[in-house]
Amino acid sequence: MNQRKVWMSSPHRGGSRVSSSLQEETRRRVLAHATANYAGRFERIDVRFRGALCYVDAYVEPERPTKALLRLRGETKEDYYRQFRETPIHLCRLRYFSGRKLWSVAFYTYSHERYEPTLYASGEVYGTPEDAFDLAAIYLT
Hints:
Layout: H1 20-38, E1 44-50, E2 53-59, H2 67-73, H3 77-86, E3 89-97, E4 102-109, E5 114-118, H4 129-136
Antiparallel strand pairs: 1-2, 2-3, 3-4, 4-5
């Protein structure tokens, strides 16, 4: 039996390099959306790019530590705050496809410590950076 190979497109492989102008536009869009819809839930948002990928991280103000927690961790209050303020919360990774001007999304799972491909809340494979932020904002609650 002769089987023919069939080429299939994957929204979580490949992609197109993100130009510097699109990087700036995407960064502005994500930051504006985060500020308008999630103000007070983060200290700052970091949007960075590598090839076809866009990584979105958040930094939050940690809760006040108890004395018992500081003893358990063996650190001072200043060390505790410094560590948490400098540690990002990985929200999501976007993959850009220029021919369609679309983005796929992968959600960061802390249980596996990696990005896992996912669908947008609408059930679609492709969406906008703002929709991806809304999906990943669960980590900001």
